[in-house]
Fold this sequence. Notes:
Elements: H1 3-13, H2 19-27, E1 35-39, H3 43-55, E2 60-64, H4 72-76, H5 88-96, E3 101-104, H6 115-121, E4 124-127, E5 147-149, H7 150-158, E6 174-178, H8 182-192, H9 195-198, H10 205-212, E7 218-222, H11 234-241, E8 246-248, H12 267-281, E9 289-294, E10 297-304, E11 308-319, E12 327-338, E13 341-344
Parallel strand pairs: 1-2, 1-4, 2-3, 5-13, 6-7, 6-13, 7-9, 8-9
Antiparallel strand pairs: 10-11, 11-12
Helix pairs in contact: 8-11, 11-12
Amino acid sequence: MSKQTKISFGETMLKTRNFYALKRVFSTQKANNPQICIVGAGPAGFYAAQHFVKKLGHAQIDIYERLPVPFGLVRFGVAPDHPDVKNVIHTFTKTAKNPNVRFIGNVNLGTDVSLEQLRKFYHVVVLAYGADENRTLNVKGETLANVIPARQIVGWYNGLPWNSDLNINLDGETAVIIGQGNVAIDVARILMTPIDELRKTDITSFALEQISRSKIKKFYLIGRRGPLQAAFTIKELREMLKLGGCSTVWRKEDFEGVAAHIPNLPRPKKRITELMLKSLEEQKPPSGKIFNPVFLRSPLEFRGNNKVEGVVLGVNELEGEDMLNRKAVLTKETENLKCDLGITSIGWL
């Protein structure tokens, strides 16, 4: 390692508050010890660090993170009413306290330091920073005001710095969520949970204050395939079915022929399908807020002038022999739903 290389790297890192930590790192390196760099202090980064600690106990491991604090999605992605899921932080903290592991926050790869520089200073560089961009629907009106990716809403109520001033309007009565995964259900549940219950969680104060004034009364959860292909899990569904002050309303036509497939389903899918059918059979006239899962629909267009006012949905049919992996195919039929808030929850890139 040349003196010039050290100076170049130091000048780059001087822009961050961690310069002296980095200086200490390089001045105390032992020539015979593997020097490992992990970029990203989320679950993937810490699981990688745990593995290196276990298999290479003498290795020096530096974990870089663009945020000032570690733990990534465990801290900023898990719903605030799911504290049990965050318990893994205790395990990660033990790893962080290992004398051979250093956490270095406020360092942005590509801005504060380059990948080329890291490769010069370390024997191994692990990139564990995950997906960073939202998938898009590529439909007309997707950029209208109050059409918001679920990821931004999750960051907003969990305290992610760049989502703290999210421009979300909760003054309307109806929200549409495109996607039927656990994140979609998490967002619906948080925005529909009674405010006194939310106060018991670690939700951000600014999100709590805004949700307390929310006028949203109905959430549509839109999925392009059927109940047998839904991506949410039974835990999240049970939480919605038990949510106080909220009724789950299913559409009977979405479940035609579903019961006949139950004997041939894998156990996890069998249990969640039975739960949906049981809820459908016990369905009563709705009261309070309404959670309305809708299957076999694809968004074709968001409509509105200054902000979203509705969504056009295409009606789908399923094709394919594999019941759990059937493909959604658009028909010529469409439906229109009025909405005041549109949320996209279709994954990350």
